[in-house]
UniProtKB/TrEMBL annotation, chains A, B, C, D:
Belongs to the 6-phosphogluconate dehydrogenase family. It holds the Pfam family 6PGD. Pathway: Carbohydrate degradation; pentose phosphate pathway. This is Decarboxylating 6-phosphogluconate dehydrogenase.
Length: 327, 327, 327, 327
């Protein structure tokens, strides 16, 4: 089908390419004219403004928005809505907060427009492997867009089917790599929790490798020290172990290139999803120790010493002075 | 080669079968004569005592011990050592604490015997998929046993090779699913950390699904509630997402069979490796928030309310009474 | 001075009594006429409506609001503002979220009214001991209300002065038990963090006593078991130890009454402040492991087994089956 | 009574002084002859060797050992035991691991000697305030030493009595600041948990103040920023608030001297007790999230960036590259 792609950064550009490769027509727009020209050279229909995009689409127009931050996404949706005809559909494929989706869907509904939110995982590998998608929005609109989702998704590929999945109780799209999770916001909500889990998984591996590395310390008894080859440890765990995963594949790749990871500062950024996941846990009164502590580990990685650390020292000085026997 | 398998439980029995399928000869012994008879019917050489095992092996005898607990393993090793000829090799394939390996290796060395520790992952799936193995012990003994490890290991199979692995700096065995990690204890140490990571990964998924499930709560605003199909969520994450993993495959399998997991009590056991990993972190002064908190979540799953919980209530009563405005 | 007290629950009633004891005049109002009558019998000026309150105050009127929940507080403030004359002052002494204070102060300012937020600690003991107060709002209004705060505060009492406090760099009111923390919301913000710390302190004691109690377990080696008298342990720590505190006094009191704390269910409630503190930590990217985990421990105390626990069991079943040697 | 004090560092020296002030006779010994001479000038009986100490004591001799580390304590106990007459008593007032106490008590018992372990809190303030003591050992020996403990303890002082303590069910010594906790090791065990709690309390305050301090950040919306006077906040919380404590007194003192705590590096040491407390929690399968995470915060304070942090960055690079929309 014919679809606008608004935002041609690495994610938007690659999605457009994957869609075109599957036979869809893409009307491409970005504030950066070079990005538009580049994609047009690969077969996209270039547009010079949102109005121009609309002129080049068929009604009802479908807009896939792939922008880096919430404010720009909101502004773009407002601009599209201002000139929209009833029945047009806005699809936000970025990383929006699911409560923003709920708000947007309501506002658009009042104008006769539909809104679909798509949480997407797969990163820079998605163009080749396909994108795992979690979708929120009205049933019939999601159904109408199925060819688009099917083209973006990885499909069943070589991954084994899960035994015992029951027809009628499960969504066959899940096996193709996308689901219709529920109404507005449900897609980004599931994606948000996905990223929260991702933080926890990453931190679990990170701590494990820290313990392996620390085992070479000369503070340990000599016969309890091991100078382990972490590149090989990561590799062997990929093969038949209970903790094999795609993240472990990436660890193995990273260590194969640079066994000491010296190119990385270790100041680890965090995106909104981690914080939102903790917020959700608090709203639901669900204890989420691991996901939260994984987020805090990232905060901690970005500072050297906190005021709180100094306060600990100050207390220790206060009660212990320079005593022979520390408290 | 010819090898004794001592302990024919599910793990030992299946390993023996996998070894025989690869052409190795197994002298099988277990306290349970039925288990011995069963394996003999599949081609193993039955033995009725440790002495009988030795009589049926060639010198230097190689003993693979696959027993459930440390004390039995220790007693068995002592019994083997008592009658051993110099050069015999004891291989512990169970879940021993690595400091026990160090102690045993020293004691056996004094008698001219060798000791190899093998941490094994793969569980009930290992017979078919192969076992991921982490090996500690003397270089030349591990090399001599290579045909055994190669037969037990999964081999390269269909898992992609990691790009950039350098010859000479990495161990080619890692790509086959086993490594020689270092001297005595190194195998079980790496396996121990593996299990520590496993705890963290499992808890990360568990918390994420708890947050997904809690999102249906009628305590939340109506338009922020989602009644998500967790079976489908697990399935879709297997396909192209950043958090795909073998554990997630198992989750998808479990949810496909029983979407509410009602057959499980949720009282989660923990094996020694989780605790030992935390001990190791403390010996190295490595912060291991996630791995530790994952262990504590299991402890907490096994009790209803702690004395500490009641103490919190007692304090709240103490300072707040039945005040209108709670503290 | 003359002051309205709106809300005569345990907190509001006791504050009114403490203020009257110090010579202030209280115009008392509550939806519950009995509460008004009771306080009038103790010397307060009874009022039957907000308008009646205003009629009995002098201009500019000062309203101290002491209501249990945010929504009622908001509605009450709106009702007061609707009939207010310029210069009137609303003081919220409840447990409002500091961002609500900021919003309210702005809205009232537009009508020429002032707003003061007062975070209060002391609970049911406050009438006798005095209330520790953290105040936000305009400098001159807080100064004008100083006699009120001074009367409510504990004063210097028998608590030692902190050596080294410098005149000019510190607020002398702090030594009397109240501070002007900053502009609108600052009072409740400091109170909120206070409660966050309280959660952490409480949980630290709770865990410690859990470990003491668990030491009697017959799963431990016999000579490593201690059947400790926790009532005495709490008492002795009150006297000269580094961890003496008012919360510990309450623990000692609770254990003296009921050494097993059997009257308490251990289902521990949490108020908004704990969650808001974690939110603040996330907004600031400050790692707050202890405060957050203390909150999560309360969530966990209120459920028996989580879905996540069952998922852990399901995974363990998935990879381990009934194997002899658990993974 | 007459008592040897072995180890005249700040703790041992001050204890000796407090004992002498109460009329006890101290035979003083230290490897540092100057320390002995200094205490002799204050009234102690100087000794030049352990044998000399024994010669100057009456039988059965009582030895109070106050040494900084476990190994030296063990060596000293061995040396005393080697020349001891039956009935002599060794008292370890240092920070020994309680399992070492159990071992030592057994070994000494075989020689007809008694062993008492005393966990002591109070730090540099103890000489003046008295020492809070938790005692393990045989009932009759602890009873015989009561005058010594009574002299070291703070006594009831100005601290309020806990209402409801029942005669017969509680130990009256607790109100004087010392308890007989149980058999060998029980004293140090209770002291160990005390220190574990101390870690948790300290970290709770540290995190709270970190959040207060972070509230001035210019990354926050302007009307949500507060530049709080932390010196005053600490002071006001000492007065009538639920979180008042001796540690908070120390915080107030520290901030009064140096509001930015600039003299402290924030690299926070940890003593054995924190680790042992976590070990005990693991042996008992008690979840101790707060105490453990407080320990880990100290580990983290001592390193800049961990290998694990870098691994997180490596994974993020692996799946996200330089994508416009981060995962």
């Amino acid at each position: 089908m014919k679809l606008a792609m608004i935002g041609l950064g690495r994610m938007g550009g690659n999605m457009a390419r994957r869609l075109m490769a599957a036979g869809h027509e893409i009307v491409a727009f970005d504030r950066d004219a070079d990005a538009v020209a580049k994609l047009a050279a690969e077969g996209a229909i270039a547009a010079t403004s949102l109005d121009d995009v609309r002129a080049k689409l068929e009604q009802p127009a479908h807009w896939w928005i792939m922008l880096p931050a919430g404010e720009i996404t909101d502004a773009t949706i407002d601009a599209i809505a201002a000139g929209a005809q009833p029945g047009e559909v806005v699809i936000d494929g970025g990383n929006s907060f699911y409560k923003d989706d709920i708000r947007r869907a309501k506002a658009l509904k009042e104008r006769g427009l539909d809104y679909v939110d798509v949480g997407t995982s797969g990163g820079v590998w998605g163009r080749e492997r396909g994108y795992c998608m979690m979708i929120g929005g009205p049933e019939e609109v999601v159904a109408r867009l199925d060819p688009v989702f099917a083209a973006l998704a990885p499909g069943m590929g070589t991954i084994d089917r899960t035994q015992g999945r029951l027809d009628g109780q499960t969504d066959p799209r899940a096996e193709q790599g996308y689901i219709h999770a529920g109404p507005a916001g449900a897609g980004h909500f599931v994606k948000m929790v996905h990223n929260g889990i991702e933080y926890g998984l990453m931190q679990a591996y990170a701590e494990g490798f820290d313990i392996l590395k620390g085992k070479a310390s000369d503070k340990l008894p000599e016969d309890e020290r091991y100078d382990l080859n972490l590149t090989d440890v990561a590799e062997v765990w990929r093969r038949g172990s209970v903790i094999s995963s795609w993240l472990l594949d990436l660890i193995a790749l990273g260590l194969a290139k640079d066994a000491k990871l010296e190119q990385f500062s270790g100041h680890v950024a965090d995106s909104g999803e981690g914080r939102w996941t903790v917020d959700a846990a608090m709203e639901e009164a669900v204890p989420a120790h691991v996901l939260t502590t994984a987020l805090f580990a990232r905060y901690r990685s970005r500072v050297e010493n906190t005021f709180g650390d100094k306060m600990l020292s100050a207390m220790r000085f206060g009660f212990g002075g320079h005593v022979e026997i520390p408290q």
